[in-house]
Specification:
The protein has 296 residues and is α/β, with parallel strands linked by helices. It is built from nine helices and five strands, in the order H-H-H-H-H-E-E-H-E-H-E-H-E-H. A five-stranded mixed beta sheet has the order 1-2-3-4-5, sandwiched between helices. Helix 6 packs parallel to helix 7. The N and C termini lie far apart (110 Å).
Amino acid sequence: MARKETAAAKATSQVLIEQLMVNVGKISAIIEKEGQSIFGHANILTNEEINDYSLEFLELFVMVLQAGEKIDRRGPEFKALKKFFTNLSRQIQLRGGDMDEFVRYIQFLQRVFLDNLQADAGADFATSRQILVLLASVFNDIVLDVFHVYLEEKERTIEAQQEELRQTSTPITEIWDGVLTLPIIGTLDSQRTMMVMEKLLTRIEQDRASVVVIDVTGVITIDSQVSHHIIQMIRAVGLMGASAVITGIRPEIARALTSLNIDLGGVTTRSTLSEGLKEAFRRMGVHVSPADAALP
């Protein structure tokens, strides 16, 4: 039984190799034409690149078939084929292509061999079935591998975008000598709080700030966790020798804080950022008055 399976596997690979050797020109031309149809219309790949990729694919596929009686998915030949498709998919994504187009292209490659097999009158039913199973197995593995790489790339991109958003959504600005402003937009989780706190404490030390105005106008909702994070920041500011002023607490936020029994008795609050800055200037001994007030 084992000998029959080995012979069948060998025959399957051999039939595919013979088909490629005999019809390599026709198969290559068909692959190149479809590649141009899928990727060429949007200038994702040039015709020259498509031709090079088509020939490289055929060479690597033949190497996989010639590597042994059965396809070794851990072998260097199969790894080289998967790496080829991974690199190709990345190239396509970088140039604006999407995953659907790439999967459609891989499915077409499989169909080319099946169509060529049907045109081969010398292939019996058993051999055709074995070839069908082999092709489905190989190309399904490639699609899954590329899809995993695609998801990993997407995840890295999303994480980078989120990190960039976190960095830009909490700008710390020195609006006067010794006075910093920190507008908080969105929600505060533990990770973001630690990042903001680290940046804020570093700026307090660098700028020798005495007052920090923390504006929460952009905080949509507040719960016990968010309020705890804000209090943490206020305490950290105090430990650095500076004082904090909270501004922008809207009525709904005030009601939420009251219902949560959050004690802000020792915290200086002002209704608006403008009022908070006036308080900061007062603490710095700076008097601010309208320009026309100085006129005689």
